C-alpha cells in the first residue's frame, strides 16, 4: 500500500531534521504527554501511525508494559523496533521490568482494531490506551483507493469505538508558510470558559475549537495562505475533558504546522451510573 504521509522520504527527512529542526516540536510533544491523564490501569498502549516513533518520548513509552504499534509503512517496523529495543533494555537494567513490542504492518479498519485489542489485551479496554500519533491530519493527503476506504470507515466508526476508551491524538490542524504565534517547544493550553459548568452529558457533546478561532488566536495580524488538514470535526463529540493543547512543528525550513493535542478518557462510572437509572427516573 503506497502512503503519502510516511515511507522512505519521511524517514530521510527525519534523519535530516530529528536532531535539529524537529527538536523543539519533540520537546513540546513530551511536555504535552506528561500532562495527559490516562487511567493507571492502562498498561497496553496502541500506537496508530507510529512511523519511526521519532516524536514519541521514551518517558511516555516506558510507562507501558506492552506497546502495540500499527503502521503499513515497511520501514516503520524496522526503525521503531530498534527504538523500543533500546528503551526496553534500559528499563530492564534500571527497574528489572520490560516493555514488550508488537508490530502490525498494515492499516486496519475499526472492527480489526477492536479485534486486535481483544487479542492483545484480553483483560478489556480498561487496560488499554490509544495514541493516534500525528496521523489524523495526514489522512486527507492520501489518494490511494484502499487508503480512502479505510479513512471512510474511520470517519464513520471511530467515534463509537473511542467513546468508551482512553485515547490521545496529536494531529495537524493548519499549515503553511506563516509561523503560529507560539514559541519553539512551547505548549499552549486552551480551555473553553463555558466548560466548567457543563455536566458530563453536555460535555460529551463538546464543540471542537474552530479554524476561525485558531486563526484569530495563533495567526493574528499575519497575512497569507494556510492549508486546512480537515481535522476540526474528526473528534467532535468525543472530548469530555475539553482540554486542547497547541504546539508548532517546523517540518522543513519555513513550513510550519499548527499541531493540536487532544486527550480523553471515558468516565466509566458516570456511564454505568447513567445506564443504571430506571427510565421513569431519568
Ligand atoms: C507523519 S507520520 C507519523 C509520525 C510519527 N508518529 C513520529 O513520531 O514520527 C504518519 C504515519 O501514519 C502512517 N499511516 C497512514 N495511514 C495509516 C493507517 N490507516 N493506519 C496506521 N498508520 C497509518 C503512515 O505510514 C506514516 O508512517
Describe the structure.
This protein has one domain (about 10-275): Rossmann fold (3-Layer(aba) Sandwich). It has about 280 residues and is of the alpha/beta class. Helix 4 links the parallel strand 2 (about 65-70) and strand 3. It is globular. About 35% of the residues lie in helices and about 20% in strands. Strands 1, 2, 3, 4, 5, 6, 7, 8 and 9 form a 9-stranded mixed β-sheet that branches. The model is unreliable at about 195-205 and about 270-280 (pLDDT under 50).
Task: Please tag this protein with its features.
disordered C terminus; Rossmann fold; 21% strand; alpha/beta; 282 residues; 9 strands; nine-stranded mixed β-sheet; binds S-adenosylmethionine; single chain; 9 helices
First and last CA, distance: 49 Å
User: What proportion of the residues form beta strands (DSSP E)?
Assistant: 15-25%
CATH architectural category? 3-Layer(aba) Sandwich
Unreliable spans are 195-204, 268-282
Mass-distribution shape: globular
Order of helices and strands: HHEHEHEHEHEEHHEEEH
CATH topology: Rossmann fold
Tell me roughly what share of residues is in helical segments: 25-40%
Query: How many domain modules?
Result: 1
Hetero ligands = S-adenosylmethionine
**CATH structural class:** Alpha Beta
DSSP summary: helix tally: 9
The assigned structural class equals: alpha/beta
Q: How many strands in all?
A: 9
- Mean of pLDDT: 87
Specify Rg, calculated over alpha carbons: 19 Å
Instruction: Tell me about the largest β-sheet.
Output: 9 strands, mixed
Helices, strands, pairings?
Blueprint (H helix, E strand, L loop, with lengths): L7 H10 L5 H13 L8 E5 L9 H4 L4 E5 L3 H22 L4 E5 L5 H11 L7 E6 L11 H19 L2 E11 L11 E4 L8 H4 L7 H8 L8 E2 L14 E10 L2 E10 L3 H9 L6
Parallel strand pairs: 1-2, 1-4, 2-3, 4-5
Antiparallel strand pairs: 5-7, 5-9, 6-8, 8-9
Amino acid at each position: 500500500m503506497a502512503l503519502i504521509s510516511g515511507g522512505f522520504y519521511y524517514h530521510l527527512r527525519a534523519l535530516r531534521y530529528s536532531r535539529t529542526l524537529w527538536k523543539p516540536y519533540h520537546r513540546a510533544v513530551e511536555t504535552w504527554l506528561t500532562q495527559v491523564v490516562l487511567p493507571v490501569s492502562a498498561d497496553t498502549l496502541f500506537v496508530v501511525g507510529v512511523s519511526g516513533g521519532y516524536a514519541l518520548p521514551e518517558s511516555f513509552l516506558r510507562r507501558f508494559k506492552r506497546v502495540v504499534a500499527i503502521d503499513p509503512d515497511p520501514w516503520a517496523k524496522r526503525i521503531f523496533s530498534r527504538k523500543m529495543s533500546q528503551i526496553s533494555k534500559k528499563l530492564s537494567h534500571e527497574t528489572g521490568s520490560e516493555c514488550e513490542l508488537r508490530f502490525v504492518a498494515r492499516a486496519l479498519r475499526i472492527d480489526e482494531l477492536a479485534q486486535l485489542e481483544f487479542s492483545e489485551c484480553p483483560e478489556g479496554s480498561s487496560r488499554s490506551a490509544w495514541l493516534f500519533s500525528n496521523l489524523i491530519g495526514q489522512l486527507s493527503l492520501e489518494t490511494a483507493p484502499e487508503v480512502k476506504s479505510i479513512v471512510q470507515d474511520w470517519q464513520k466508526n471511530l467515534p463509537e469505538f473511542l467513546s468508551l476508551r482512553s485515547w490521545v491524538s496529536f494531529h495537524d490542524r493548519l499549515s503553511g508558510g506563516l509561523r503560529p504565534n507560539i514559541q519553539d517547544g512551547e505548549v499552549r493550553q486552551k480551555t473553553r470558559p463555558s466548560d466548567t459548568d457543563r455536566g458530563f452529558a453536555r460535555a460529551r457533546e463538546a464543540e471542537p475549537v474552530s479554524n476561525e478561532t485558531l486563526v484569530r488566536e495563533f495567526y493574528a495580524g499575519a497575512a497569507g495562505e494556510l492549508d486546512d488538514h480537515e481535522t476540526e470535526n474528526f473528534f467532535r463529540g468525543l472530548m469530555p475533558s475539553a482540554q486542547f493543547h497547541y504546539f508548532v512543528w517546523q517540518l522543513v525550513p519555513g513550513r510550519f504546522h499548527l499541531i493540536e493535542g487532544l486527550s480523553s478518557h471515558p468516565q466509566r462510572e458516570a456511564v454505568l451510573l447513567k445506564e443504571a437509572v430506571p427510565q421513569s427516573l431519568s
